[in-house]
Design brief:
Blueprint lengths: L1 H6 L4 H4 L6 E2 L6 E2 L1 E4 L2 E4 L5 H18 L9 E2 L6 H11 L2 E2 L4 E3 L2 E3 L10 H10 L2 H6 L2 H14 L2 H6 L4 H16 L13
Parallel strand pairs: 5-6
Antiparallel strand pairs: 1-2, 3-4, 7-8
């Protein structure tokens, strides 16, 4: 565990006790922030002290680097917290109150991904990439190549994080199969191979 702690970047605010992150179960590390490109997600215990510290850290970032956080794009989420407390602390940060579910990096957060309705976005994107007009203008081998590349890349991000319901997998497979054989709503064709 000591080796893991030395490799993980930590905020000095956590080490000094100014910001309380979230302790992962089974003796896991304390999570305070997650960064991806220009997105940062701060995670911590719900308290006035944490919000005030975060406000000071963002102000300090502006003074030291000259970078300014666009507070209109920021949201404050509170799980199991009363709405009036969320609004009060969102005003301290000069941001909006966020509601669940929300999208982060293209993934819905705060939903039960075992339900097929939350996979609709992926199915719609999959369907649009394998659109009907492409099926008419490509050869059979071209349709196979497009279907393999789309099937191999588009759902991978979702499927690396969530286990899809069987009905969703069947729907994706049907869309791919119909595209390969050139089947559209107006034109039925014979599938030569099962």
């Amino acid at each position: 565990m000591d080796k893991l702690d030395k490799r993980m970047p930590r905020l000095r605010a956590i080490d000094s006790g100014l910001f309380q992150g979230v302790q992962l179960p089974n003796g896991g590390p304390i999570i305070s922030h997650l960064c991806y490109a220009d997105d940062v997600l701060f995670v911590g215990e719900w308290s006035d002290k944490n919000v005030n510290t975060l406000n000071r850290l963002l102000r300090w970032l502006n003074l030291v680097t000259g970078l300014k956080v666009n507070r209109r794009k920021c949201k404050l989420f509170g799980i199991g917290v009363e709405d009036n407390k969320k609004v009060r602390l969102a005003n301290v940060l000069n941001c909006e109150v966020g509601t669940l579910p929300f999208m982060y990096l293209g993934i819905p957060i705060g939903v039960n991904m075992k339900r097929a309705k939350y996979w609709k976005q992926l199915v719609d994107r999959f369907h649009s990439k394998l659109s009907k007009w492409k099926a008419r203008h490509l050869s059979f081998s071209g349709r196979v190549t497009v279907a393999k590349s789309v099937l191999g890349s588009l759902p991978t991000y979702y499927l690396s994080l969530f286990s899809a319901p069987k009905c969703v997998l069947n729907r994706l497979e049907k869309i791919r199969r119909d595209f390969i054989w050139g089947i559209t709503d107006s034109r039925k064709r014979l599938r030569w191979i099962r």
